[in-house]
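seq/struct pair 1
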Amino acid sequence: MTPRPSSSGPDPRKTTGKKPAGKTPTGKTPTGKKPAKAAKKKAPRRTTASANASATTSVSGAEVAVSPAPDAADRERLLAGTHHDPHAVLGAHRVPGGVAFRVFRPYALAVTVLSGELRVGLHDDGDGFFSGLVPLKDVPAHRLLVAYEGTEQEVEDPYRFLPTLGELDLHLLGEGRHEQLWRALGAHPTTHEGVAGTRFAVWAPNARGVRVAGGFNFWDGTGHPMRSLGSTGVWELFLPGVGAGELYKFEITRPDGSRTFRADPLARRTEVPPATSSVVHASDYTWGDEEWLAHRADAPAHEAPMSVYEVHLPSWRPGLTYRQLAEQLPAYVADLGFTHVELMPVAEHPFGGSWGYQVTGFYAPTARLGDPDDFKYLVDRLHRAGIGVLMDWVPAHFPRDDWALAEFDGRPLYEHSDPLRAAHPDWGTLEFDFGRREVRNFLVANAVYWCEEFHIDGLRVDAVASMLYLDYSREPGEWEPNEHGGRENLDAVAFLQEMNATLYRRVPGVVTVAEESTAWDGVTRATHHEGPSGFGGLGFGLKWNMGWMHDSLDYMSHEPVHRKHHHGEMTFSMVYAYSENYVLPISHDEVVHGKRSLVSKMPGDWWQQRANERAYLGFMWAHPGKQLLFMGQEFAQGAEWSEAHGPDWWLLDPEYGASADHRGVRDLVRDLNTVYRATPALWRRDTHPSGFSWVVGDAAEDNVLAFLRLDADGTPLLAVSNFAPVVRSGYRLGVPDEVPAWHEVLNTDAARYGGGDVVNPDPVKPEPQGWHGRPASIRLTLPPLATVWLRPA
């Protein structure tokens, strides 16, 4: 994985849109919208008595006592934002003598309680507190008439409602086992006790108090303190009248008494960066991919064709939204025959130059391209085009932005409490505390969220190696061994096992893919199967084969005359090919930061470079393992990828003189996918040694590699690569004697791909001459710098 720069920057919602204390809203409601003109009403008569004295007011002709204000301690804690149970003070409560009403409305001039025919003008206790005692037997359903300068509003009392989270939710939260965490925490428009509004809930166990601030209260959360729900560390509040589209943050009072405005970790929608507020979201999307989902689990991923097109959505066609991409991307990918797309991280991130690998909004698709329903539309359209959707997922680390997860409630919370364990040494970020059950729950539920809510078919988990090792990129003295004296991060192992087991249990047909660059034992082994290292498997479905990628690209970068000295780099992958279930990745990481594009890695002139790329792709598609190719490489883009402008599509413009060269490579990729998908020998036994057999793997002097791929019934495909720039006529290869003739089904040197058209047009019949340890042999013409595929005629 390439190191990405960290994100930072001021929070506009911390310095703008917030009313100074002591000011009164004029001409606007606390929702930030112009109210309808209210009929002028005479405000109830109020006394001028002190807050602790009694006064009287008329209720239906009777004189009743006005309750004293909340006691000094409650007032101080509510004003300071450090009250754990504001509902115990505010709202309506049975007390000796009747029902006490207490309201905290900063900037209000008067507050009247309305309940049926009952109208009670509350006493102004100062500092925004209003109270009254009504001789009623039971607490009535009531509303509040709040007078501000120049306007009145009739509103619900947020502090008359029971908690919106039930005992089961709280139990699962406390256990760290809430697999649909996003349904409990965050902001959810709902109808609660017959009233429409939004319920807010956030985990902040170290906070002295939490308040909700947003556009609906001019970014001043003083009047909207949340309650703490027992020992769970969860704070909750239902706000009537707040609906989808409202901006909000949590105003947290930290243990040292200071305050911080934080975006919601469970926000399902965000503002467009660089703005940082969370957005209340309600989805009304109707899916149309039922047929896709019904058949997604028909075959496990490692026994099915998988050819992946990796995409950075913001730069694939710069400027397009999710819905605009949905009109172009599915058609393009389907035309080229890829089975899947893999989307570089979609979760919200503040710095575009991180490509999405430094996430601040783990539950929100980036707002740069549209809202969450727009992203659902893109996934839906891909599915309806027959294309699976994988997504890069980044549970290894997160940036230090002071409005996001870092020291969220004033102390290390999502990150490890040990600074040596918290700081990621490569990227200036923070590592998650995988040993904390609530943090594991946050991440495991996040994996489930993307697959259940957005119908994502699989997660490619980024930077797994950095999670697995305590000494990853750390020098001696910068890390401490685990309890057994080893360097394995046991907490991360347990987290990955839990994540995989949970996801595979809940979502039929899903696949997880590990970007894991070491020789960790059992990445794709089942979690309950213990390996020689003593660990159960991590439970992934597939693993990126980084060794194959590095070795094969190194081989291809050498001039052909020197390749014989590096021949083993092309054969070594078969030594360990069946130790895991592999993906062969030519990803974004290999075509940036001075590494050059795929075609530019190749030696020789322009013709040879393209021939080398075509031969390499033919070899790659035939090699055991699934294929992944980054956008732009399918048409031999010469320049490195840049997120600023994306692929060089102009290379395919017929007006460009060399466009045929690039279209030829793209045509090859299309044909590779077409033949691949139609040939079970190339994918059915990707993970079983019986699906592969060398014909010749030691022809280093010739720069030739030849092998058979075999279907379950033994039906073969013969792949032959000649990585020398010379034609080899009559090249003899040993073959099975039961095949009466072989037919060339793909040749990367064909003229339509831009090659020299050195082909084998006629069926090739075996001769009874044994060769390469086989009873029969055939003689082929091998084109220069090319790969040839043959099937039984």
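seq/struct pair 2
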Amino acid sequence: MCGIVAAVAQRDIAPILIAGLKALEYRGYDSAGMAIADGGEIRRVRAKGKVREMEALYDADPVPGGTGIAHTRWATHGVPSEKNAHPHVQGRIAIVHNGIIENYASLRESLRAKGRTFHSETDTEVMGAVIDEHVQAGRSLREAVTAAVRELEGAYAIAVMSLDEPERIVGARRGCPLLVGIGIGEHFLGSDAQALIKVTNRMMYLEEDDVVEITRDTVEVFNLDGQRVDRTAHESEISADSVERGEYRHYMQKEIFEQPRAVADTLEGRIGPHGVLPNIFGIDADPILDKTRGIHIVACGTSYHAGMVAKYWIEELARIPVVVEVASEYRYRDVVVPENTLFVAVSQSGETADTLAAMRESRRRGYLATFAICNVPESSVVRESDLRLMTRAGPEIGVASTKAFTTQLAAFALLALDLGRRRGLDGARYLDHCKELQSLPRYIENALKSEPEVLKIADHFINKQHALFLGRGAQYPVALEGSLKLKEISYIHAEAYPAGELKHGPLALVDENMPIVAVAPNGPLLDKLKSNLQEVRARGGELIVFADERAEMDTETAHVATVRVDGGGDLIAPAVFTVPMQLLAYHVAVQRGTDVDQPRNLAKSVTVE
């Protein structure tokens, strides 16, 4: 994910910009750059690769100045290179940009017809040229930015500076985050509070279609009609060190509660009112995804469960057959690879040994291409894949993965919807699902409110040695994930089954000493699930049911505890119902006194076979 830092100050701001970019490195990027207004000119320092490489260029030839913008870029339009790195300059304008502009090609052609020359392959430089056209027509920088964004289709967060107003920066946002850092005699823009926390903890979060103008002494926010609007400044609660636990007892608890933000970040700038935005999977994605006729998903542990959910989504929405494999098994069998099959590797760390080895093995097996879903941009899985979609979970310290799982689900949902659109998914249904996906952070936020009820249920597990999790359809992988979380951190033996398999063996285990956890969303399989639960109840089993608010469930019978959750729609329900089961595992482990964040025998990143 690209990152933005900008500043107007009474001091040289290059060190601030560089420090801010380093704080955003976890987001993922392939080039970095900054531009500073210096004595009547805009001086740029840009480099392909890491911030440290750009910093070395700056150290060799320092650029003084109190007004500047900086950026880390993840390539969408144009390959990673110095010429495609931000900031871009057009005329007397310099600009940095997060997001994707959908109509940049038509804008570029009309500008070329007017005599404009472009030096990069990016949509961002086109934006800069549009703004410069308005400046040349006599508009102020803010007026020019406001007029320009009215012409844009897509998602953006931008910071713009002009030689004509060298002590002023204008920002704007739509679909991508942008915030203001408020100082004394200095103000900042950033795409993430973490980029600014070392210089100020007072933040002002901009809303959709806001245009902000900052100087050393002022911050003014306007709507697209040019009217001033009020935005409240807040003191940020994050620390300068993103891996601090803060108010939470454990990292795992903190990361569970970070999920609304993490999922929102994963979706930001990738989905808009007209659907999934172009080029989010890489600049070479279109011909590959258009040819895809089969998918093999390979992963381990929690990531494997995310792939299992994705199988339901992709097959239903895109009608493409999907095979999901445990990486350690895939490596050692003779896999049949149908023509035009896409290999998808899923890993939180990007260094999981079996997954990485499986991806390397896939190279000789004739796949169409490799695709990575990962949280760590510098990882081997990402570097070695043809296409990639970075999750934006941020640092995950707890060994038991939580926000990595829900962000992987968000990433897979984007892929499923995009493939569905390419394969003729009904347009109205496609847009409904896109709208549903955009609401996922809100539904996760609501699901977190179930914690007090879950805490009471955790008491039932303190002295238990076994538990059984049940789910149907896309909720079966969620049951698997719930059982994995419980066994990882509480050391209770837990298994998960499709609920319809009860009669084929697991029912023999059911008695009053084994809690049965069931996931009951409101859907076509609800009645089937209720029949399965009656079988458990008839054997005296203790049922814990996570049920959709709209599902009709008998909660009056003894031995049944029900937690109501608003699961949203069918697409997002697996991610929503995952949250209370994470809370259950966490609170059971706390009450049993285990080491929640570092459970015995486990490591965060499994880098050996």
